[in-house]
Amino acid sequence: MDKRELKRQRRKQSNRESARRSRLRKQAECDELAQRAEALKDENSTLRSEVSRIRSEYGQLLSENASLKVMLTLGFVLWLLRVDFVISYYLINLTCKFL
Questions:
Q1: For the segment 64-99, what is each residue's pLDDT rounded down to a tens digit?
Q2: Could you tell me which residue ranges the BZIP domain spans (predicted)?
Q3: 1 contacts 9 by C-beta, under 8 angstroms
Q4: d(C-alpha 98, C-alpha 95), whole Å
Q5: CA atoms of 88 and 79, how far apart (whole Å)
């Protein structure tokens, strides 16, 4: 083999090695992206479950809040009725004293 042929063979071998390293790098990048995609899918699933749980809890809290508002309103109405009753009682007693 002459020098040019030897040089050409070395260049071909160098190119093959470079191509092999490039393929290995790309494969490693692809594997890393696949792992990242799997981790993101898991995270997405976890977050969806958490959103569902929070929505359910929110609905329960809305219902409880509505019930408490009704109870508060009824309590206020009962208080007003008691005040009215007490005032009526005293007015009747006062009226009876003057009769």
A1: 999 999 999 988 888 888 888 888 877 787 777 766
A2: 5-68
A3: yes
A4: 5
A5: 14
Interatomic CA distance for residues 44 and 93, integer angstroms: 73
pTM: 0.60
Burial 66-97 (b: 16+ CB within 10 A, else e): eeeeeeeeeeeeeeeeeeeeeeeeeeeeeeee
Sequence-ordered list of residues with C-beta below 8 angstroms from that of 64, at least 6 positions apart, any chain: none
